[in-house]
Prior knowledge:
By secondary structure, the protein is α+β, with helices and mostly antiparallel strands. 34% of the residues lie in helices and 29% in strands.
Amino acid sequence: MDTQTWDALVASMKNAYTADLAQGTAPRPVIMPLVRGELVGLIWLRPTKGGEDALTAIVELSNVAAAASADEVVLAWETQDVATACRLPATGPVPCLNLVHATKEGHVLHQLPYTHQPLGSSSGGPVTAEPLWLPAPGPQPGGELSPPIQAALRYSFTPLDLDHPSPFGVTVLLMEDDGYTVHLTDTFTP
């Protein structure tokens, strides 16, 4: 992946996190598969129940990447949200937006720690916040990842065995039916 694409993905994730926090909602994990350096799309986690359901849903993010035969993926998540949803200890700084860039050969973890600046509440609604981004540590080749994130990366590069004329198209439709939010680029729209 070239630097321009990486910078655009990081900026879009920071903007998405800022928008979600301003709405008083927790940002959901998202996977961004790439094929030959071209973004396939963005797939956001479906609504989950805690524990096993959250673990399974995070791993299932890999399905579109596998169906597209992605050669790279970027997975973004918030440390505490994933730890809480999966009932696991937090891995890394909290609060922190994590982005991992992975290929079959390995991964590099990028951590973007932040603090919350409360913005208040509108009409008795949820308290909203804005992230204040802190200095980021350097990229961490092979950085420590929680088990569901590790599994999602591993399965992103495991070919799907689907007996269907359009394995990519049917995978996208099945994931949408399961509640995942899928936004594909024009090139990859089935």
